[in-house]
Amino acid sequence: xxxFEKLVVTVSQLNNYVKGLFDQIxxxxxxxxxxEISNFTNHMKSGHYYFxxxxxxxxxxxxxxxxxxSRLKFMPENGMQVLVKAxxxxxxxxxxxxLYVDDMQPKGLGGLNLAFEQLKKKLAAEGLFDExxxxxxxxxxxxxxxxxxxxxxxxxxxxxxxxxxxxxxEMLLEPVLVQGEGAxxxxxxxxxxxxxxxxxxxxIIGRGGGSIEDLWAFNSEALAREIxxxxxxxxxxxxxxxxxxxxxxxxxxxxxxxSAAAELAVPNMSxxxxxxxxxxxxxxxxxxxRLQLERIKLQQFKSKPxxxxxxYVLDExxxxxxxxxxxxxxxxxxxxxxxxAKLQSAAAKxxxxxxxxxxxxxxxxxxxxxxxxxxxxxxxxxxxxxxxFSEGSAKASVTEKR
Amino acid sequence: xxxKLTYEQAMKALEETVAQLENSNTDMDKAFExxxxxxxxxxxxxxxxxxxxxxxxxxx
Lengths: 402, 60
Description:
The complex is a heterodimer. Chain A has 12 helices and 14 strands.
């Protein structure tokens, strides 16, 4: 054993030695391996991907560091057939060799296509594309916000259509990059700006035609979310009729081209005018109709028998009132006459009883010292008496009493 | 009428007014009120378009 001891190495030294051997082999620096993904782990905290690649008979471990993983347009999944470009090396701690993946492409569908389908599925599942979320476009926007390249064909087309169809609307351009690294962020920022400033009534976001890579910015998840979150209705117009992007699904309306977007965004001025004229006509007609209706109603009401009879009823009443008045007057004057007759007879009676009346028949009243004399016994011979006649009076002396 | 109606708001109000006016259940006083409101709204819309067109011409 002693002679072996010189040759003994630690595990670490061994693994390190093997790793050195691996790293010396030029071919291992750049290997292309195809296989199926299994045991895929997306290490959320670090952003690294850990997985295995396998075929029918064998398995190899693989890792993809965050910096490379974040560049992938699609999310790797178990069962996915992929082609990876990797460096083959040894993980010393575990004594295993594994693939350090630089890039990965799905087999079959291109990577971009796959990424597109994956994102579309994910956002659709979240309800981001639901019809119920879609906002109606304003009918008469005063300000149209446009997010596109200031130099592209899209802005030219949009400007032409807007000024021809509805020149009274104001156009606000947010110039952005529509392709390349910074494009999605710029597109998002422009959308945010319009919303924060509330500076327009409808937004057109888009660009002219190009390759799938050129249009890729419009497949950004962040942009899709920004579009969905916009309070201002958004019309997407990316590329040509046949191009569909994630932005198209998230937008409130998809226009096949930028020109079409402009046509969707604003009405035709002449249509607006004739529409207004028609409304005016309708208003007048409605009111005239209403007046006519009222007139007919009134006419019908006036000719109603009850209303016609009312006149007779009134006349009758009037007559009755008049007759009753007459009658009352009559009754009153009869009563008055009766009273007068009564008064006259009373007056006649009164007169008959008057002393003057008695005197007028030749009787006289004798008074002694102012008092009426009723009996001769009241008198003595020689008394002076006053005699009151009907006309005048005389003084006399009592000469004899009987 | 409130100041600063957008064309959209004015047009919508006009459409509603006409619809109400076309409903013969509204009484006559109300109908007249609606008509006057409608006329004012139509004028507002007309003025709006003219004004915008005028300022457009001035800018050219």
